[in-house]
Amino acid sequence: MRRFTLSGTANALDADGLANDVTLATSATLATTTVGGGDGLAHKVTVTGNAATNHSGKTITVTGTLHGINITDTMAGPNGVVAVTTAKYFDTVTAVSISSTAGADTFDIGWAVDSVTAWTHVSRICGANGGFAIGFGCHITDGSPTYSVQHCHGGSDVSDAFTHSTVTGETTDQEGTYTTPIEAFRLLFTAAGSVEMVGNWTE
Questions:
Q1: How far is CA 192 from CA 33, 41, 172, 186, in A?
Q2: Does the model's pTM come out above 0.90?
Q3: Where are the beta strands (DSSP E) in the chain?
Q4: Considering Cα of 72, then 76, then 77, then 80, what sign does the dihedral take?
Q5: Longest dimension (CA), the chain
Q6: What are the DSSP E strand ranges found in 67-132?
Q7: How does pLDDT run across 38-95, given as a tens digit for each residue?
Q8: CB 152 within 8 A of CB 189
């Protein structure tokens, strides 16, 4: 039997953490490209309108990286002073653009609290044979997070994620198991705070 630890601390949302009051054209001028304020997690990216104008008929494109892999995501623009949010998670953002002119309107660009740790690949911690049975406990170590455990079955860091059958949307310490093989697992946060996932597996 072997032991592993995975921890994550999700920072709160920051609606203008990447750029404040900027225009969108070919690309916005970003104050920083790092998402999450240094928490080391990948977050969903938000774009907030600063005017009452309806930009929902336009497409906003976000370009950046997730765990070192280049990714893009698109979403409809905001309708008024509201935020729109990517479906994908980003470590970094290198460009944010809009499909047609937004005139003199400006936007704030930041991140949501929704975030994930990097994947922990079972083969890297269990050896070539993988882990058939994994038991784990999740412990809240700071703040009041809401968290889930997720897993994937593919070999890529951008594989589709599946949420654990019982450890999902949790606000207290929880334990769970995996009794059939998986490729990798991670922590997902929807409220800020810290969680440590500690477990054991058998080969």
A1: 21, 11, 13, 16
A2: yes
A3: 2-10, 14-22, 42-49, 59-66, 69-76, 83-90, 92-98, 107-116, 120-121, 133-152, 162-163, 174-178, 184-202
A4: negative
A5: 62
A6: 69-76, 83-90, 92-98, 107-116, 120-121
A7: 999 999 999 999 999 999 999 999 999 998 899 999 999 999 999 999 999 999 999 9
A8: no
Half-sphere exposure of 10 (CA within 13 A, CB side): 29
Task: Measure the CA–CA gap between 79 and 91, rounded to whole angstroms.
Answer: 26
Place of tokens 């470590």: 91
List residues bridging with 140 in a β-sheet: 195
Which residue intervals of 94-201 are DSSP H helices? 122-126
Burial letters for 181-197: b for 16+ Cβ neighbours within 10 Å, e otherwise?
Answer: ebbbbbbbbebbbbbbb
Rounded to an integer, what distance in angstroms lies between the CA atom of residue 201 and that of residue 162? 20
Give me the residue label for tokens 């479906």: 87
- pLDDT-derived band at 149 (thresholds 50, 70, 90) equals very high
Query: How many whole angstroms separate alpha carbon 118 and alpha carbon 185?
Result: 9
User: What Cα–Cα distance (Å) separates residue 106 from each residue in 39, 70, 110?
Assistant: 27, 26, 14
Q: Where are the domains of the chain?
A: 2-8+117-202, 13-112
Task: Identify the CATH class of 2-8+117-202.
Answer: mainly beta
Measure CA of the first residue to CA of the last residue in the chain; give whole Å. Answer: 7
Side chain identity at residue 118, one-letter code: A
**In the predicted structure, residue 128 carries a pLDDT above the cut 60:** no
